[in-house]
Prior knowledge:
heterodimer; A: alpha+beta; DNA polymerase, domain 1; 5-stranded mixed β-sheet; 5 helices; 5 strands; globular; B: Uridine Diphospho-n-acetylenolpyruvylglucosamine Reductase, domain 2; Uridine Diphospho-n-acetylenolpyruvylglucosamine Reductase, domain 3; 5-stranded antiparallel β-sheet; 4-stranded antiparallel β-sheet
Amino acid sequence: MSKHTITLTINGQEHTGEADSRMLLAHFIRDVLRLTGTHVGCDTTNCGACTVLLDGAAVKSCTLFAVQANGKSITTVEGLAQNGSLHPIQAAFMEYHGLQCGFCTPGMMLTAVGLLERNPDPSDEEIRWGISGNLCRCTGYLNIVKAIKAASQAMAAGGKR
Amino acid sequence: MFPNQFEYHSPGTVAEAVALLKKHGDDAKVLSGGHSLVPLMKLRFAAPAVIVDINGIPHLDYVKEEGGVLKIGALARESTLELSPLIQSKFPLIADAAKLIADPQVRNRATVAGNLAHGDPANDHPAVMLALGAELVLTGSSGQRTVPITEFFVDTLATALAPDEILTEIRVPVPPAGSGGAYYKIERKVGDFATVAVGSQLTLDKAGKVVKAGIGLTNVGTTPIKATDAEAYLVGKTPDDATLDEAGRLAMEMSDPVSDTRAPADYKKAMVRQLTVRTLRRAAERAKGNQA
């Protein structure tokens, strides 16, 4: 019905693409921009695997239309590492074994980055509340909480990138 | 999953948005946070031909106090409430409820106004705003009108909004000294809709007697319920255990839940009583801690 030309900044680079009004942001990122690190899990706003940062705030990209991101800035998991070095959250997930199968991990890490942006020194309790919109079916969350805690300390010690 | 095809509009002003709504009538839906509407569209329970996205309209995203009134704009997100010192200091009832709605990502998008305008008795803000005695500003093609929250909820998913109207502002009187509120929610898992939830707001005089009481019930009827019998009973009384228990019983009597996958109706009724008592007790504690 209505086609739209969408221009957005994704991981610091401007992209333009075409989308139907009904195309979801998650599909625009995966199928049009070919950035497949953003996963679609439940497709019902529950699991958080599709989480990206929209102008710095964590959102579930399965529950926004691509056209709503026109003119906005998006960060996906592909945008976390810079100049060949991992983001502190990625390094911490690796060190603390915050993943098993890895399916939830991109969304989990972007949610964590959004949380730490707002609250750089969260308690374990605040981390648990912070990731309550992300489901992991392998790890039992303990190592994810440890990883986010460690990332917060690393970012405080090393200065935010 | 993806919705049916629709025509998308992103107006730059409320007037343009309202003109689009007037033109398309029942075929159009307002998109604000979209976290009730988009899931319904993906499941094709809703298939509006026209979407009027109000997110591009400036000056609608605010939470502020003006002339003794809390004003929440149409695009204020749930997460704004969590971060607002005004809400945290003067509206503990709203603060309690805001952090129990869905999850952090949803709260970054979902709006307070949308939570009301959707007309779902399972949403949390309707009961909160019934307890607080909010007024809603509706803007349509023939101008603005103000509707008390008690006249807003007509039926399940049906409100007093005309097809060409947008809920542009929520107004809540700032409670006087000696006021406090609380919201408790029973949910199967974090972020779920309430099995039962209750919001209570009390104002106490210096002697500790109730001057004003507001009680809202979530997800125990076809509309959100204001437990007026319990509110009236409390006025002039000291909120001791026996008084709170009777208020809980009166609130329970006004609830009308159905059995569903969340719980049997009898359990829900019993929990309305319990949560009413507990929220009133917490509201009274907070009110005492907030005497001038």
